[in-house]
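A reminder from the course coordinator: this example appears on the midterm review sheet, so study it carefully.

Given structure:
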């Protein structure tokens, strides 16, 4: 159990290898994608509608 506490330069959220890397990358992709989606939605919502 103490072997994971050694100082190898890895952040604690990436200590368990491949599964942690995939979870981290998926979380970051969803966060960045969600941010871009929200910014696009705000831009579209801020445009005035054409009254015909």
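Designed residues:
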């Amino acid at each position: 159990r103490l072997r994971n506490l050694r100082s190898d330069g890895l952040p604690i959220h990436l200590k368990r290898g491949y599964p942690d890397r995939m979870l981290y990358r998926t979380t970051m992709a969803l966060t960045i994608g969600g941010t871009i989606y929200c910014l696009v939605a705000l831009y579209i919502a801020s445009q005035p509608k054409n009254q015909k």
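The two ends are 70 Å apart (CA to CA). Residues 10-43 form one domain.
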